[in-house]
Amino acid sequence: MKAIPRLFLLCVLLVAGCLATVQAQDTSHHAADSVYITPEGDTVSSAFVKRLLRFAAVSRKRSVADRQRDKAVMLQDDLFENLKKTMQRTRTYLHSGIDTAGISADLTHVERWYTIAGDGIFVNGGVVQTYRNLASSYNMLLVLQNRVQQHKQELDNYQRRLSQFRYQLDSLSSDPVLFAFPTDSAVLSKYVQKLMMVAVEVNPVDSTIEKAMSNVQALQAKVNMQVYRIESAKDEIEVYQRTLYRTNFEKEVTALWEPPAVDRPLQEIIAVSWKKGWLTLRFYTENNAGLVALLLLLVLLSAIYIRSLKKIYRQKNLLRNDFAGQLLLRYPVLSALIIVLNIFQFLFPQPPFVFSALLWVVSAISLTLVFRGFITRYWMRVWVIMLLLFLLACGNNTILQASGPERWFMAALSLAGLVTGIAVWVKKQHRSELREGWIVYFIGFLALLEVLALVGNCFGRYNMSKSLLTGGYFNVIIAIMFLWTVRLINEGLSLAFEVYSGQDRKLFYLNPQRVGAKAPGWFYVFMIVGWFILFGRNFYAFRLASRPVKDFLSQEHQVGDYSFTINTLFLFIGIMGVSVIVSRIVSWFASDKHLAGTGTGGREDKPGLGSWLLLIRIAIISLGLFLAFAAAGIPMDKIAIILGALGVGIGFGLQTLVNNLVSGLIIAFEKPVNVGDAVEIDNQAGTMKSIGFRSSVIATGDGADLVMPNGDLLNSHLINRTLGGNKRQLTLVVGVAYDTDLRKAEQLLKEVLEADDRILRYPAPLVLFSEFNTSAIDAKLLFWVKHSNDPFLVKSELIVAVHQSFQLNHISIPFPQSDVHIAPRPPAPGAA
């Protein structure tokens, strides 16, 4: 902008120089001055040219200096703006930073929990280390390690972010552009004031960052110390566990009848064991809160389903007083607890004993209440005794350190299990009363394990004795619960199969024919493997044997640039399988017949999820697909390659399939037809049974299922009775004799129509005399029925009612008659 006045001044000087030249030509006494002759022949004073060149050089230097000053001002403005933004972000981050007080308080809790975890191992140790104590402490330390590692990562990220803010502020504050001072004194004064304001704003922010970093560094030191202590404790516990495994069959304590070498008071052991057990249960439940919520939801859904099935049996008077073959329906909530807890307990990864024992106790008590009054008195007593001994074994297994009183209690418990097992095995006359004959073999196995536990306890093999003692009781109780779980599932499938041959609202649209009347064979294999795993968890050798398998499953494999593990592959398949199963469950539980009409209270039934079912299933499967890819670590660019390959395939040979898939989406969005609608296609009437991805199923009136591709369904001339309110207009033609009183016949016909509740009052039914027919006057009845599935029945009963009314009022319905006139043959010509 400053170059414009200089350019104007230069033009003025040039004009003045030209005028002076002209004047010099007119005046001769100026001839003594030297002149400069231009190429064009003009003459200019040499002194003026020199002044002009000097002015141009000075102007050029001033223009360069001005341009550099303008650039410096722009850079300084940008720098100040960046400083303000950085300070604002820094203040915001400091204001919403981590809760150092909360982390410090949590570290105090971790310190206290670490002391509890180390009790009986690093301090107050007995004469022998125990499997349960080492396992409980190890699980606690693992949780504490994860907790402290989260704090460590949080503090490291916070420290890194603060360092970044500090580096940005230092870089901006020390930028050389900031120290390019203007030469003008007034501008310099204003700029210095601006610098001082910025310095005043930056200084407290920098001090706050310094203080925050100091606090974080102090916390980091405490966290690092905690991490080191916990990792060292874990390593030491692992050494103890391997030592116990190597000396499993060696003598660890004195014989039972000998005085113990070291005996900590039992009250202290119980107190410490209670603290460890409670903390272990609390930590595990908090870390797996989602799975616990899922388990409760499954219990709720199962209870609702069993309760609805029981209601159906009660309504049909099929419920037996003794619940023979219907034990599932006796207590729906308890049956749901038994089934869900026994099957879905395997969802929880490496549960501690306290958590598993809680699930087992709830399931066993529920089974006891279901048993009451159903099984024979003898086997009920056996079950109650086994359950009480099992509860005592669970309580004993929560005691984490050895003591003399506990060993005598273990001996009594082993002896009780041995006596009970032998008594049951010897009395063979009651075996025929057993509902599940395999139970006897598990009771015999219990007696064998208790003998070994008793012998090991007597001769100082404490850990082996305790593992055999608890394993024996767990084996029989878990086996009985698993056997009855399979039995209850088979009962549920059989009961549903007997009552329903198709889907029904009260059964949540579960089709028993698709499921079958008995649990599949793989389910029995699953329960056997599950029993083996739960039984094997009582022995440390089982855990050591399973560790190589876990390592193999978690080991990374390389295929090209992609690395994967067997676990991720199983996880991918599992997520996809779960998404498909969930989509099918939704199709069973959320389908809606959508038979419009009058429901309870005279209101129309509202459509449910049937019309949105396809979209819901697509959403579930799509979400499952993306979750599976994310869980398996497959990058999204690989998905793009797959989609590109699919696009090529679609372009060449999958047009029909894609057409049907897209048509299914159009049907789902546009909803010209819903699940449960009464439809007609090419004079074929039926009910929409399902709308799938590629095809839809229509249940015809003759009991068959018509499978129609979605593309054909969308392009066909579809009549949807339900979409129009599910009503239907019918016509009935009645002929009356010519001598009939037509007004009386009309009145009788209207009375018959109004007497039928299935005929709508609006639009009102009409009786019209249409034409004079051959032998009668035709009366046409026009009326609407409420439900499109009633027309043939309504019409049939209406004909009967009209016939009876006409008979009572002596109105005849003529039938076609013909008079045949036989003309006499004319006499033949010439006849007499």
TrEMBL record:
Transmembrane portions of the chain: 289-306, 327-347, 353-375, 382-402, 438-456, 476-500, 521-542, 562-591, 612-634, 640-662
Keyword Transmembrane belongs to the record: yes
Lipid bilayer topology: Multi-pass membrane protein
Family indicated by similarity: Belongs to the MscS (TC 1.A.23) family.
Originating organism: Filimonas zeae
Keywords linked to the UniProt accession: Cell membrane, Coiled coil, Membrane, Signal, Transmembrane, Transmembrane helix
One Pfam match: MS_channel_3rd
Protein name: Mechanosensitive ion channel
